[in-house]
Design brief:
single chain; about 425 residues; alpha/beta; Rossmann fold; Arc Repressor Mutant, subunit A; 3 domains; nine-stranded mixed sheet; three-stranded antiparallel sheet; 14 strands; about 15% strand; globular
Length: about 425
């Protein structure tokens, strides 16, 4: 098997994707191309003399280096001939011959994969919308696919992670190279791989170069059944992603914005031209692909639910209700008092024996809606408002992690900041 993979890596490291695809179509396999007479290369339509010369170099040293790096970093190599290779990608104009995958091997063809794209220079509206839609799509059973860059992409992946994942991030560079070479960037890459998958056509160790993004976009849309454009200016690269999706016959959706919003001129124009369907909620997209959501109800049932339950006043004692008398008997002149509502009638989930008008928040099925860190902070805020310092002490988390998590919770409305640097739960937003 490794011998066979070596020839796939030899071919894809020699030529660009379009030329490698032409060679593959001509010979039927990279191995046949490798052992072919050099004169045969001149018969391949569209192959330049320089590219023919590259194929005459039979060194597999670089291919072996890629194999070693993948083996040491637990990166899976998928070739076009593998049974696990996504069928959807076989059908794009120039399919990738090799994919590198880090994380979980997901059954992409059986899932409602929704690609999400938006400007890197997102507004607050854009980041909030990307986060919310990704979270709700994931909760509804869809598989969110996005990149690992700033702006809408970053907010979308955080939304999918907060819903418990999984998700897939398609990147331009290597699956082992973070978009930002920082501890946070490395940590994020690890979290995505642990909860879902990082996918790329570029070999491990490759930087996220601008020239690779168009191919990244083609794989992102090719893997999906639909594309959601969050926010895009008149010259945003998101419009190029939408063009690719339309060329591939994928459904394109866009979120409307104010007519004067510069950051949304592009998405509004997609709607004006009829190149995208307008959507207002994640359900608008989920309902369109309901046939690919066999586990949608189960996924929703697994989500974390918070419910605010108010304890009613203690019920007053009342006399037992009189038994009905025969028609001839006089009516009871002293009617019963109206019965007070019991705790079980108000809250069938749990009986509460706390004081009058006290409140509590009950966490149900704590496995889906919030990430572990979000859940920890929310629990720490149940007793009442707290400062960042208090939360750090209560959770044992770092200051940076607490601050970042509070920011995301504030974006979703689950937490609000009070004067004095304290944070408080917003119970009505948690349901």
């Amino acid at each position: 098997m490794l011998t066979s993979v070596k020839y796939w890596l030899w071919l894809t490291s020699r030529l660009d994707p379009a030329a490698a695809w032409q060679v593959f179509c001509h010979f039927g396999s990279p191995e046949k191309a490798y052992f072919s007479d050099p004169g045969e290369y001149s018969r391949i339509e569209g192959l330049s003399p320089q590219q023919q010369k590259l194929l005459e170099d039979k060194s597999v040293t670089y291919a072996e280096q890629i194999l070693a790096r993948c083996d040491s970093r637990n990166i899976r190599i998928l070739t076009f001939s593998d049974t696990d290779f996504p069928e959807r990608l076989r059908n794009i104009e120039v399919p990738p011959l090799v994919l590198y995958l880090r994380g979980r091997m997901l059954r992409f063809d059986d899932r409602a994969v929704i690609a999400m794209a938006g400007t890197r220079k997102a507004t607050l509206y854009g980041t909030q919308t990307a986060y919310t839609f990704a979270k709700e799509l994931t909760r509804g059973g869809a598989l969110v696919a996005t990149g690992i860059v700033a702006g809408c992409d970053a907010s979308a992946l955080q939304g999918a992670l907060s819903a418990g994942g999984p998700l897939v991030c398609v990147v331009a560079g290597g699956v082992d190279v973070p978009y930002t070479d920082t501890p946070a960037g490395h940590s994020l890459l690890e979290e995505i791989a642990g909860r879902g998958a990082v996918l790329s056509e570029a070999p491990p160790g490759t930087g996220h170069k601008g020239a690779l993004f168009r191919r990244r976009n083609a794989i992102l849309t090719g893997l999906s059944v639909g594309l959601l454009c969050i926010e895009a200016g008149s010259r945003s690269g998101t419009l190029g992603v939408a063009e690719l999706a339309n060329e591939q016959g994928k459904e394109v959706f866009a979120i409307p914005a104010n007519l004067g919003a510069k950051a949304s001129l592009g998405t509004n124009d997609l709607l004006r031209q009829g190149l995208a369907r307008p959507v207002l909620t994640a359900e608008d997209i989920l309902s369109h692909f309901s046939y690919l959501l066999p586990r949608a109800q189960a996924a929703q049932a697994d989500c974390t639910r918070w419910r605010l339950v108010r304890c009613p006043a203690a019920p007053e004692k009342r006399a037992p209700k009189a038994q009905p008398e025969p028609e001839s008997a006089p009516a009871d002149p002293a009617p019963d008092k109206a019965p007070s509502a019991s705790v079980s009638e108000i809250s069938p989930e749990k009986k509460v024996d706390t004081g009058r008008d006290s409140g509590y928040i009950e966490l149900l099925d704590a496995s889906g809606r919030w990430s572990e860190q979000e859940r920890t902070l929310l629990k720490a805020l149940v007793p009442g408002p707290a400062t960042v310092e208090t939360l750090i002490a209560a959770t044992g988390s770092s200051a940076g992690l607490v601050a970042a998590t509070l920011t995301m919770l504030a974006v979703t409305g689950a937490v609000r900041e009070l004067p004095g640097g304290r944070f408080q739960l917003v119970p009505e937003e948690l349901a």
